[in-house]
């Protein structure tokens, strides 16, 4: 009996070893990112059973090629229909604004080479916190005449979500076409009856990826993290705020939430429309394309003088456009770079760009929360601090609450506002979208907001940071190694 149990135990251990080796080989052969490869291998070594299981559950994208190839085909067809229409004015815009174009030439050229990032004249309004965003959004919804398109990572069934739902249903009953995309993971608290109420009242609503079972949890890795609204093809919203009570200070609890959104009026909204419809066709199975109703050919107004480009990213895009736009903006800096992000886990490319800017005498400041909503992410972020501090980067920790804004301000004319964090997930896994804004007015407003946020922050001292508890530093280093898996 004892020999039988011993043999059984040996077979189990041999099976565990074989399973681990098989998983390790798959990781090395199929994982393109070196940091992610190292993280998964460490996980397999530390947890011989759980590590391989976790990799096969969430690390392998079994459906990526089959699903995303369909989306790419639809993207290509839609792109061929609308490309000439919304890119034709880019060269003329550059000629009308030689100063802005000259200062930001590298970034403009990078994005013009993307699938669809034309340069256009717009009017940009900065919206701080839910107290400014939701009244502006509700007003725009009320004034919609043809269609309302929403794409959100989180849509919650709370006071704010119900208010938005009621406003959308009201417009749908008036004959306005309402289409909604929500992320099935981010909006997991959205009950079926809430969705059914939309559909019963004429609103079309689809999840970006339906998640049925934990066994298909690899889909969780590819999240639609965008927060976008397009109304009638001439008004758009995007930024850090989802639809939930937490973004409106004083509505839920005493925790302060600092976030930034942007309202865009002008031809850049057509670019938002293109990217929304690409995802819409993928989610719904429909084939909406170019039409005068969806892409109105409205001329820019003389008062619209904020130049805007839209940049998107996701696992099915041919290159990491979000990361490249951040990198290029930092490398173009001549005076200053101000970064605000709730989650700071940069890759080596971004670290080198930030350090290079500081080494070459630019004023580089990074503002992140003292505590975010993830202790693990906080630990991983802090691993990078010493290297940056020794390079001359000034790091500020926000103490008033959670700063959730995803923004960058460079010199005197460039601002970036959007959904992408300065982390590996936003660079590689999530579907993200940012607005690149070339405007002295917007830049000055964003700088003023940044400095006001610093009033509720404290700056790290390099010497004190160096002499912290060694065990804490070890834990941060371990978290950093596992950071690519977050």
Mind sketching the topology for me?
Elements lengths: L1 H29 L3 H13 L3 H10 L4 H24 L2 H7 L1 H6 L1 H8 L7 E9 H14 L4 E6 L6 H15 L3 E6 L9 H9 L3 E4 L19 E5 L3 E5 L16 E3 L1 E7 L1 H17 L21 E8 L7 H12 L3 E5 L3 E2 L2 H12 L3 E7 L5 H8 L2 H7 L2 E5 L2 E3 L3 E4 L3 E5 L3 E2 H5 L3 E7 L1 H15 L2 E3 L2 H5 L3 H13 L4
Parallel strand pairs: 2-3, 3-4, 7-14, 10-12, 11-17, 12-13
Antiparallel strand pairs: 1-8, 1-9, 2-5, 5-6, 6-8, 9-18, 10-15, 13-19, 15-16, 16-18
Helix pairs in contact: 1-2, 1-3, 2-3, 4-11, 7-12, 8-9, 12-13, 14-19
Question: Care to describe what's here?
Answer:
This protein is α/β, with parallel strands linked by helices and 486 residues long. It starts with a helix and ends with a helix. The model is unreliable at 1-5 (pLDDT under 50). The protein folds into three domains: 2-59; 64-94 and 121-304, 2-Layer Sandwich (Endonuclease, Chain A), CATH 3.30.870.10; 321-485, Endonuclease Chain A (Endonuclease, Chain A, 2-Layer Sandwich). It has helices at 2-30, 34-46, 50-59, 64-87, 90-96, 98-103, 105-112, 129-142, 159-173, 192-200, 268-284, 321-332, 348-359, 375-382, 385-391, 424-428, 440-454, 462-466, 470-482, and strands at 120-128, 147-152, 177-182, 204-207, 227-231, 235-239, 256-258, 260-266, 306-313, 336-340, 344-345, 363-369, 394-398, 401-403, 407-410, 414-418, 422-423, 432-438, 457-459. Helix 10 (192-200) links the parallel strand 3 and strand 4.
- What structural class should be given to the helix and strand makeup? alpha/beta
Strand content: 15-25%
CATH topology type of the largest domain: Endonuclease, Chain A
Q: Note the gap between the termini.
A: 45 Å
Mean pLDDT: 84
User: What is the CATH C-level name of the largest domain?
Assistant: Alpha Beta
Number of helices: 19
**Main sheet makeup:** 15 strands, mixed
| Assigned CATH superfamily of the largest domain | Endonuclease Chain A
Tell me the Rg in angstroms.
23 Å
Strand order of the largest sheet: 4-3-2-5-6-8-1-9-18-16-15-10-12-13-19
Beta strand count: 19
> What number of domains?
3
Overall geometry comes to: globular
**Percentage of residues in helical conformation:** 40-55%
State the assembly state of the protein chains.
single chain
């Amino acid at each position: 009996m004892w020999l039988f149990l011993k043999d059984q135990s040996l077979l189990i251990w041999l099976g565990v070893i074989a399973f681990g080796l098989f998983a390790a080989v798959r990781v090395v052969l199929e994982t393109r990112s070196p940091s992610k490869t190292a993280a998964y291998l460490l996980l397999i070594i530390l947890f011989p059973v759980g590590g391989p299981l976790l990799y096969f559950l969430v690390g392998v994208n079994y459906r990526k090629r089959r699903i995303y190839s369909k989306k790419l085909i639809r993207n290509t067809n839609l792109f061929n229909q609308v490309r000439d229409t919304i890119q034709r004015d880019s060269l003329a815009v550059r000629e009308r604004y030689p100063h802005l174009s000259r200062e930001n030439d590298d970034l403009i050229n990078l994005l013009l080479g993307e699938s669809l990032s034309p340069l256009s004249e717009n009017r940009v309004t900065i919206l701080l916190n839910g107290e400014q965003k939701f009244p502006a959004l509700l007003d725009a919804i009320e004034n919609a005449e043809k269609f309302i398109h929403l794409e959100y990572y989180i849509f919650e069934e709370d006071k704010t979500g119900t208010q938005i739902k009621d406003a959308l249903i009201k417009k749908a009953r008036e004959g306005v076409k309402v289409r909604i995309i929500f992320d099935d993971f981010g909006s997991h608290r959205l009950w079926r009856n809430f969705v059914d109420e939309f559909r019963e009242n004429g609103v079309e609503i689809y999840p970006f990826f339906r998640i049925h079972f934990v066994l298909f949890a690899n889909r969780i890795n590819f999240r639609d993290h965008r927060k976008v609204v397009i109304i009638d093809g001439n008004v758009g919203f995007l930024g850090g705020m989802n639809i939930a009570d937490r973004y409106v200070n004083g509505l839920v609890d005493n925790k302060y939430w600092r976030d930034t959104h942007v309202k865009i009026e002008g031809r850049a909204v057509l670019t938002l429309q293109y990217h929304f419809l690409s995802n819409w066709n993928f989610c719904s199975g429909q084939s909406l394309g170019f039409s005068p109703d969806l892409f109105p050919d409205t001329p820019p107004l003389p008062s619209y003088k904020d130049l805007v480009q839209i940049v998107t990213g996701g696992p099915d895009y041919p290159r990491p456009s979000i990361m490249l736009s951040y990198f290029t903006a930092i490398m173009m800096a001549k005076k200053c770079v101000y970064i605000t992000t709730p989650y700071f886990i940069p890759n080596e490319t971004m670290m080198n760009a930030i350090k290079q800017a500081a080494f070459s005498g630019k004023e580089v400041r990074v503002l992140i929360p003292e505590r975010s909503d993830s202790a693990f992410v906080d630990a991983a972020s802090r691993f990078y601090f010493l290297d940056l501090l020794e390079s001359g980067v000034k790091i500020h920790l926000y103490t008033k609450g959670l700063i959730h804004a995803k923004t960058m301000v460079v010199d005197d004319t460039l601002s970036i506002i959007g959904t992408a964090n300065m982390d590996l997930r936003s660079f590689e896994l999530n579907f993200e979208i940012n607005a690149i804004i070339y405007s002295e007015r917007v830049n000055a407003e964003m700088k003023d907001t940044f400095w006001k946020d610093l009033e509720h922050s404290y700056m790290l001292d390099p010497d004190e940071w160096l002499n912290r508890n060694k065990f804490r530093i070890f834990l941060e280093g371990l978290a950093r190694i596992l950071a690519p898996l977050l």
